[in-house]
């Protein structure tokens, strides 16, 4: 079946390029790392349940390896995960514990938590429903002398022969229209950046309605971090008491929805806001930097006539084009759903119409549709073995599974049962895949967590094929 695709030029959609806003004064706000408890197995000896025993360089199908326990409140609310390849650390957004959980992927042990984030209950004004929970999503960016951080007050890393640093910082989208800049080694928030804007934020303790910051990615060419706020509500200054006004100079009790917006932040200290861009109807999903285009591609879900993928130029702060996908033609079922994008070479992986799809990164043309597994939220490309990873229901058994595809050819490879598991990410050196498993009473007995009632992190690794030389 030939995909039916319609291209809409930038001139035919609503493009609102925001003017540059003044640089913000971001005062570092550090929170000390928590003491790491003696939790199960020592960090020095690692977690024996997760011993690879040759599976680190194996080439067989993926299978369950082990589960890693996370201390604190049960993991009931978590959006995304991230494996940082540069330091072999795995980060889990944990609104249940108001922070980011950190696991050493070499020893498979919990090592600490970056605290001080929004958590499940929205704070800082507005309401819990409108101002948003967090933390949510991650991306890392390098710290470079002269081109990155102009000062060395924090003493990160060491100078290499090229005059740069060997360390990176983690950008974490949080509730309350905030982005946290995190020192991944010290497990501290260095700086909090507000990405609120005037049409959803009145600037007082009770007038914050921009909601949570969510999807985030990094443009390594222009050193720009782009973060979206998917569900802002309007802030309206009332001229007199009356309908929706609480006082003569009040605000709407709950403003109407306004378009999702994207904030562009300099990845160089002191992390200035460069501009903001309205994205039009629908909710922004996981955008990705595409090197072959030198642009961000951003999916829009939930809008009539969609789903859409927008092409965004971070230098001009404009939506250059928007492509529409016909779900009936692609899958046989009507839908306007889309989710996160990933890219490897000229292959763009999307979650459109409830299915993983491989697209041409230059043109947006659909190359193939995966029918064996559905979609979830986060997806990942493991550059170690060239696989694309999603979590969704197995098309035959309807069991929640980890779906694995060849990222270059689009071939579906396998599904692995993963009850209550979601948000896959992988460590390329060993090809281990990590998913977080939320605690829920309905799935607690059947998920892969060893300790019940808590949730956990589940690890998958390739199996050893007898007689096969690695």
What is the topology?
Layout: E1 5-9, E2 16-17, E3 62-69, E4 81-84, E5 89-94, E6 99-104, E7 109-114, H1 128-131, E8 138-142, E9 168-174, E10 178-183, E11 188-194, E12 216-219, E13 224-229, E14 261-266, E15 273-278, E16 283-284, E17 288-290, E18 295-301, E19 308-313, E20 318-325, H2 327-331, E21 342-344, E22 347-352, E23 355-360, E24 366-369, E25 380-382, E26 387-393, E27 400-406, E28 412-417, E29 421-427, E30 432-437, E31 456-462
Antiparallel strand pairs: 1-20, 2-15, 3-31, 4-5, 5-6, 6-7, 8-9, 9-10, 10-11, 12-13, 13-14, 14-15, 16-18, 17-18, 18-19, 19-20, 21-22, 22-23, 23-24, 25-26, 26-27, 27-28, 29-30, 30-31
Question: Can you describe what's shown?
Answer:
The chain is mainly β. The protein is built from 2 helices and 31 strands.
What are the main properties of this structure?
6-stranded antiparallel sheet; 470 residues; mainly beta; disordered N terminus; single chain
